[in-house]
Amino acid sequence: MAACGSLSSRIVCGSRTACSTLTPFIRSAAASHRNPDTKNSSTHRLANAGPRRDLRGSGLHRLYRTSSLGISGPSSDFASGVEEKTPALVLSDAQRRTIYALSTPPGKAGVAVIRVSGPDALEVWRGLVKTRGEGKGKAKACEPEPWKMHRCEIVHPGSGDVLDDGLAVFFKGPRSFTTEDVLELHVHSGRAIISSVLNAISLFPFCRPAERGEFTRRAFEGGRLDLTQVEGLRDLIDAETETQRKLALRTAGGSTRARLEELRNETIQCLALVEALIDFGEGEEIEEGVFEQARARVLKLHDTIRHHLSDNRRGEIMRSGVRLAIFGPPNAGKSSLLNFLAQREAAIVTPVPGTTRDILELSLDIGGLPVIVADTAGLRKTDDIVESIGVDRAKQLVESSDVSLCVLSASDVLVRSQGGDWDLRLPSTVAPLVKDDTFILLNKTDLLPPSALAQLPSGTTWAVSLSTGHGTQAFMDSFARALHNRYSLLAENGLEADEPLITHARHRAHLENALEFLEAFLETPPEDVVFAAEELRYAAQAIGKISGVIDVEDVLDAVFRDFCIGK
């Protein structure tokens, strides 16, 4: 660590340089405690005067604390005399820049990973890690070779007791996840082992437990990730289906970042053209038609952003899950369908109408897509107060859901006409909720002849018997394809579909703001070129807020607070 510019700054920085610089002063200060005649010396004033905080984080404070732990150090001999008269100072969280946390789920498992990141990660290695010498049975201390896994013993920094036998790897900054020095300890995942190692790390005065998402936040602050990659990393951890995994992996890899950067750079290029007019004006220096050129580029940029905004929230739905509402009249088989999809008895099924009175939701994987399935109360007119509340909630859920599936009893809605054809007649309580994009499932087909089902429309209507299982597999395959056509990353031919740019509501809000600023620019006449430039500047800032290329402190806390502690 480089030496600081002054003695006081060396005291505050807490580096090894500061510790060695203060050694003669500490010795002289210790002597002054034993000899009152030296009370007026400058060294005595340095050791005893001045604000208390000047010693926090310094090599002097670290010396006191490490000596009390029994950790041997180059200055432990003379520090012990001072420690008897001077209590250990406690560092604030802002001064303890080295953080640590368990990065794997707690509990019994094969391996647990404990991560340490910060300027003093190497000191933690020296105090905890004892590597095995080749060809020898005993452990010995050594400096780590960065980015290489070392077989080692994890020892207590004070007593030297062996806590566990594991692996350790040191990542030298900036070539690490956080861009700082990082130490990872791979130990056996048992409650006692994890607790003992974490307690041992807590004995180092310069270490503190990490906050939620603090490792990833440091990666963002160090330029390793932008905000979209941070969100993609969080979504990747939370992914439960194949589609979610693919989308999150691409976002974490920087695909969204690159596309947003293209939009922002194009906006800045348009702004540069307009500002050139402000600085020079059209004439000898600037060719004519510059404002019209900027206007044409902004118009194209406007259409691109509008295209991303008109995606029917496909990216957000893929990330959070497709909300599917099952509705229909009583006793049509809605709860039976939910149990079939869940492959367990999730809902109570009885022949009594009105058995389901409230909304029952389950998160399922249908064809690789995350689907939140909701079973609702049967839609009918009723005088029962509780059931009527359930009916009202069912109607509201159907209106707000992404996909709705109407379950009907085939024997009740298929009616033979005079010409011998079978017509589908919806109940009056259900018909207002059936839209053009509503899927229909006809249940209890075992009660009808096969000819009744011959003329059903394909693609959006299926006929099954949930009691016998007839047609259920064909329904699941076709229904999964229909959902994929709406929301999947793959097109029907298996090729990659247009990947959605917007995966969070925050992205949509900022792009909508950018679109408004671009529209304001297009409405601004050429003579108000200064105001036109301001609209483009605001548009570039709105796009930049998505990836975090500008200071958006109010956004950061909301992004990182959903992470686990060790990430």
UniProtKB/TrEMBL annotation:
Keywords from the named record: GTP-binding, Nucleotide-binding, tRNA processing
Residue stretches making up the TrmE-type G domain: 321-488
One of the Pfam families matching this protein, by short name: MnmE_helical
Entry-linked InterPro entries: G_TrmE, GTP-bd, GTP-bd_TrmE_N, GTPase_MnmE, MnmE_dom2, MnmE_helical, P-loop_NTPase, Small_GTP-bd
GO molecular function (one): GTPase activity
Family statement drawn from the similarity comment of this UniProt entry: Belongs to the TRAFAC class TrmE-Era-EngA-EngB-Septin-like GTPase superfamily. TrmE GTPase family.
Protein name as catalogued: tRNA modification GTPase TrmE
Source species of the chain: Lentinus brumalis
